[in-house]
Design a protein that fits this description.
CATH class of the largest domain: Alpha Beta
Order of helices and strands: EHHEEHEHHHHEEHE
Shape: elongated
Low-confidence stretches: 164-176
Number of domains: 2
Largest sheet: 4 strands, mixed
Radius of gyration: 22 Å
Structural class: alpha/beta
Mean pLDDT: 78
Number of helices: 8
CATH superfamily of the largest domain: Conserved hypothetical protein from pyrococcus furiosus pfu- 392566-001, ParB domain
CATH topology of the largest domain: Conserved hypothetical protein from pyrococcus furiosus pfu- 392566-001, ParB domain
Strand content: 15-25%
Strand order of the largest sheet: 1-4-2-3
CATH architecture of the largest domain: Alpha-Beta Complex
Distance between the termini: 51 Å
Length: 176
């Protein structure tokens, strides 16, 4: 059963191996401050002893945001093994992002602000970028990029978003 409870009655789970630090934690706090209604839609899950099973970092962020109460859901009658399993499964990202949909139907700045790590070009002039790269004999552009493996999806996202103006881009991607 979902209900509201004073934050002081909840106990952080010191055995939870999931952390959110630095800028990502600040984004979580900001998200809670700007959209507190989401906390009712996705309550913190606790056991009968009010120990957090799901939402440990949200609880910390709620405290940081100055909230006095949070929405909780009590998971009753779980074994210790089930509680451990819940903690891990609640934090595992089974899925992956469909980058084409994100690139074409979502605003990258919003996604970044909402906590999704997206590559944000700051000083990129795409027209200049295309001019500086060689056009092949069949009229296509050959672009050489240096990227880290972690940035691969973000690089693809940028060009997918702009592919409507420059068709048939050929990439030579070099890892650094």
């Amino acid at each position: 059963m979902k209900k509201q409870l004073k934050i002081s009655q909840l106990k952080e789970n010191t055995s939870n191996p999931r952390l959110i630090k630095g800028d990502k934690f600040k984004k979580l706090v900001k998200s809670i401050q700007e959209f507190p209604e989401m906390l009712e839609l996705r309550p913190i899950v606790v056991d009968e002893n009010m120990i957090v099973l799901g939402g440990n970092m949200r609880l910390k962020a709620c405290k940081e945001a100055g909230l006095k109460e949070v929405w909780i859901e009590v998971a009753e009658n779980l074994t210790e093994a089930q509680k451990k399993e819940f903690i891990i499964k609640d934090n595992v990202g089974f899925g992956e992002w469909e980058w084409d949909i994100l690139a074409n139907e979502w605003d990258a700045m919003d996604l970044n602000e909402w906590g999704l790590d997206t590559w944000q070009p700051t000083d990129v002039n795409l027209d200049q970028f295309f001019e500086e790269n060689n056009e092949t004999k069949d009229g296509k552009f050959k672009i050489v990029l240096e990227y880290t493996e972690d940035d691969y999806n973000e690089v693809i996202h940028l060009f997918a978003k702009h592919s409507g103006t420059k068709e048939d881009i050929i990439f030579n991607l070099l890892t650094v």
